[in-house]
Amino acid sequence: VVVIGQDPATQETIARRILVGAAGHRVQGFLYKLGIDRSYAMVNTFLYSVYGSGGEAHKNDAALVAYRNRWLDALLVGTHVEAVIALGMLADGAWQAWKATPSGSASALAYAHITHPTAPQSAGGSDSQIAAATRALLVNWNQALQSLKSAIKHPDTQRALVAYGTTFKATELVDIPEEDLPPGLPDWMRTSDGWAPRTGTTPAKKRRTITVTVPATVKL
Amino acid sequence: VVVIGQDPATQETIARRILVGAAGHRVQGFLYKLGIDRSYAMVNTFLYSVYGSGGEAHKNDAALVAYRNRWLDALLVGTHVEAVIALGMLADGAWQAWKATPSGSASALAYAHITHPTAPQSAGGSDSQIAAATRALLVNWNQALQSLKSAIKHPDTQRALVAYGTTFKATELVDIPEEDLPPGLPDWMRTSDGWAPRTGTTPAKKRRTITVTVPATVKL
User: Fold this and answer.
1) Residues in CB range of B150: below 8 A, 6 or more apart
2) Is B48 on the interface with A (CB under 8 A)?
3) What is the pLDDT of residues A156-166, one digit of tens each?
């Protein structure tokens, strides 16, 4: 399975693996339901974090699209990949741009565009609005699970498909495999969130600055 | 060739490769003189950065030594390694601790303990004191080059040995190979220095905090 994400959050820039935070734990849980524990690759629409504009301004940059399509060719053409999952609209755009190429149009890979895993939080609002958005997300994800399940002929582990309920259960948030991160990485980098905010007193300084702090819960 | 360093500087903790800064460029230049461009592995005495004490307090921790010796066994026993280079006294201590093990005492590997590449800067003092310490360092490194040259039977590139003069020439500072760093790492992380200081107003906060800033010379 190949997962197409959006752009790296600051902590992912530091950990050198995309989807390590809250979104990552949700995606890892989605893959788990499909029987995928290690047979995946994850790539982003944007190699670097896009500050402020959210990527809309760059989504059609020809050089960027061409570079990304080389990665998608490498991952998807003549490999054992059985399905592609795009997280959110920019990732879906990346897939559509690849599908418009000769190698993309020749591909018969199963594909699902699912709601971005932290879309409810990104949209913000009251607790009840976030809960409603999460319920809608999980309906969307359940539909995708149904359509992808039959396409994945070689899962790492055969599991009966268990649909999501109306919230993420704790067991549906799966840790990032330790072997999928650089050696020596402290555990808190893959198990906690929010440890690498942008800092600085101006937007220009924030674009240049990330501050990494060991969580207070970790004893030094 | 295996290089044993000391502990990761903050920027090495972020770049996920040891010896990327000033010390790294000097070491890479030392390897170049030996004909080694890619056939090396680098490990540290300490997996994590040791704040304040400089490692003296932990150098004999039994669990740490045993763990490190497993790495040295993996790197040095029954492999194609032809020489080991230790940078500074703590790294030499790591080598001696391994040599005291059965597998270490059975090993006939060539070995050189050289002055730590940034020892002149670490010792501080006036410009002339740093220059004098650098001259002494390069005498020490020249001696090590002589003793190691004949031990390295399979360099990546055959090069006549060129000794150091009394200062590091610009050509003797060699860039870290791009392929030896995680994909997507911005160039400035391997070509510049000092971009990841500890920050915080107290020692306790400094132990927990690293601030990464894109150098002002890089256009965003």
Assistant:
1) none
2) yes
3) 999 999 999 99
Could you give the angle at which helices B127-149 and B22-33 cross, rounded to 10 degrees?
30
What gap in Å lies between CA A88 and CA A27, rounded to an integer? 12
User: Which chain A residues contact residue B12 at CB under 8 A?
Assistant: none
Model confidence pLDDT, tens digit, residues B25-63 = 999 999 999 999 999 999 999 888 777 766 777 888 899
> What is the rounded CA–CA span in Å between residue A34 and residue A20?
19
Q: How far apart are CA B215 and CA B220, in angstroms?
A: 10
| Contact flag A209-B214 (C-beta cutoff 8 Å) | yes
- Candidates B178, B193, B180, B72; CA nearest to B121 is B193
Instruction: Look at residue B111 and give its three-state secondary structure.
Output: strand
Phi-psi region of A172 (alpha: psi -120 to 50; beta: other; left: phi over 0): alpha
Beta pairing class for A209-213 and B209-213: antiparallel
Q: Name the minimum distance, in Å, from the CA of A21 to any CA of chain B.
A: 17
Round the CA-based radius of gyration of chain B to a whole number and report it.
18
Distances (CA, A) of B80 to B74, B152, B153: 11, 11, 10
A45 closest CA partner among A9, A72, A8, A5: A5
What is the number of residues in chain B?
Answer: 220
Q: What is the ipTM, given to two decimal places?
A: 0.80
Distance CA A200, CA A153 (A): 49
Residue A121 CA to residue A130 CA, distance in Å, equals 6
